[in-house]
Amino acid sequence: MTIFLQNLINGTISGSYYAVLGVGLTVTWGVLKMINVAHGDFYMLGAYFFYTLSKMLGMPVLISLLIAVAGVFLCGMVIERVVLAPSLGRGKFGDTPFILTLAIGIMLENIAQLVWGETNVGVPYFSDAIYEIGGITMAAQRLIVAAVAIVTLIVVMYVIKKTKFGWAISATAQDIFAANLMGICTKRIYMITFGIAVALCAVAGCLLAPIYGINPWMGGSIQLKSFVVCIVGGLGSIGGSIIAGILLGIIESFSTQFLGSGWQNVIAYALVIVMFWVKPTGLFGKKE
Amino acid sequence: MKERFMKFFDNSIGKIGISAVFFIVLFIFPIILRGSGYGNESYVEGVLILCMMWAAMTLSWNLLMGYMGIWSLAQQVFFGIAAYTSAMLNYYFHMSPWLGFIVGPIAAAVVGLIIAIPVLRLKAAPYIIIATMCLAEIIRLVFTNLVDLTRGELGFWMMDSFHDIGSINFNGVDKIPYYYLMFIIFAVIALVCGILAKSSTGLAMKAIRDSQEAAESLGVDLTKTKIKVFVLSAYMAGFCGVFYAHYMKILTPTNVFGQSMMTEFIAMNVLGGLATVRGPIFGAFFITIIMESLQGIDDYKLLIYAIILIITTLIMPNGILNSKAQFLSWNKKIKKLLHKNADKQPTQMVKGDA
């Protein structure tokens, strides 16, 4: 029973991050109408920015976190404007921008290798405390991580659902032509949305860096897992992504327990295939 | 003169002539190389073997992506499955590597069939991308985790080279036999792709790419065509896989199932031009030779890759070989620009015209 609860809690905590990543990907999908294969590489970039600021320059954790996220946000906006914007809306759905994001992914990975070297680096835990309640051990680090994830998700939901800017994003997602007529600068919305999506990756990257370590290839498996979250939750549905993310975390935690550590990713990816067989629109997706 | 030159390239006889010259040059290249007294012939032949192998792989992927518009990112899986099948049968059951050319591609085709079935249900490109990426990753992880059978990431290296036929020696000291073996595989695949593109199946494939609904309403059997092309594409990739297994003689899951190989195929195909036979061949030879000559700056290799990919996609979305109109319009623009700087008078005329 204790093991069951322990797994459940661990799964929920790592799942909250899959949710953050999945929401980023799903927003890109909904608004820019493309899939971003460089999503995991922005996660890696965020982690490296955080490492540079907090470990190499010795800044406090909170400040380096904020600067790292803002840095990735700016990088995302610049990349969107320079590389992606000219190709959006060209040709068939998702074709050309897809190749560009693939190239951006390779580029970011290679730049990280050149700048920070091809080794694993680490960041110290934010807090070393460990709590024990009824046989369930909880590192304070994981609690902080979960709290930040929940706050981030609430902020994103609030911005999209309640503010004028969020309405502009929804309007652009629904009908770009009508949005333009209503006086929304859709190009700016595209740029900022892409920035927000990759900033969410950076949040996840910074907070998971102390637990999983940092290397230039860390984005690969995260990338596919955010795809899993998106598909299971239904592409374009933010609430669905959050639930699917937590679900994925829990499934992964239990499959590591019962099958051994090599196989949990196989289960996660197989989830996508099962989903495509059963309900291609995802758990909460609308019909096309 | 220039007009005639351009016309020669548009002419179908001219096109056939160019491809014939290309294959003949490739065929007699080792002889010229040895005759010229260049010292390092085995290295140059090695590079050309790689060129032909990637060209054949890209051609097989081009059938799916270029002609049919199905964004399958699992081509490297067919390659890897065939390579591992042949290598493992050779090691565990002492099967001749030559029989691998029969068994390997069939195994790849079966996997192609398995991958085609879930993909058939999906119509939007992004769903297919995600599904095939996940399938490829599942297969890579399975081969990594079955350490007892495949030695995992340590690499499977215990297979034989191709057995000697008579006096033709495949021990790898002399690369000529491998060169001609790959040449035959490459030429046959290119020929099949060329014939297929002209056949009724080729037309059906192009119709599916342009609009699935319209193709279906005109009597194209979507399921049958898709499965046929998937299996054929996997079968072709399988030949390259078997060759790779007994030529390189080391297989690791990351190398043969990893996403990076797929990225190479995408770059080669996009650079040369989708939905043509010459495009992938040009792209594969161009990128492989460029990469091989950039060995000195190995660290920046992937960066250069990415930049090539970005620039091609942004300014020549149809690939280098399909952008004649674009080149001509640039030519005009440059001429106009030069004209403007040389003389003020025509500038006003241009403005007046506009």
TrEMBL record, chain A:
Question: GO molecular function, one example?
Answer: transmembrane transporter activity
Entry similarity comment? Belongs to the binding-protein-dependent transport system permease family. LivHM subfamily.
One cellular component GO annotation, for this chain's record? plasma membrane
Quote the protein name from its UniProt record: Branched-chain amino acid ABC transporter permease
Localization per record: Cell membrane
Recite the lineage of the species.
Bacteria, Bacillati, Bacillota, Clostridia, Lachnospirales
> What species is given as this protein's source?
Roseburia zhanii
Q: Where are the transmembrane segments?
A: 15-35, 65-84, 96-116, 136-160, 189-214, 226-251, 258-278
Q: How does it sit in the membrane?
A: Multi-pass membrane protein
Q: Report if keyword Cell wall biogenesis/degradation is assigned.
A: no
| GO terms (BP aspect) | amino acid transport
User: InterPro entries under this entry?
Assistant: ABC_transp_permease, BCAA_transport_permease
Keywords (alphabetical) are: Amino-acid transport, Cell membrane, Membrane, Transmembrane, Transmembrane helix, Transport
From TrEMBL, chain B:
**CDD domains attached to this UniProt entry:** TM_PBP1_LivM_like (cd06581)
Query: What name appears for this protein in its UniProt entry?
Result: Branched-chain amino acid ABC transporter permease
Q: Name one GO cellular component term.
A: plasma membrane
Q: Name the InterPro entries on file.
A: ABC_transp_permease (IPR001851), LivM-like (IPR043428)
Superkingdom:
Bacteria
Membrane topology term reads: Multi-pass membrane protein
Origin species, per record, is: Roseburia zhanii
> What transmembrane ranges does the database entry give?
12-32, 44-64, 76-93, 99-120, 127-147, 178-197, 229-247, 267-290, 302-321
Location in the cell reads: Cell membrane
What Gene Ontology molecular-function terms does this entry list?
Answer: branched-chain amino acid transmembrane transporter activity
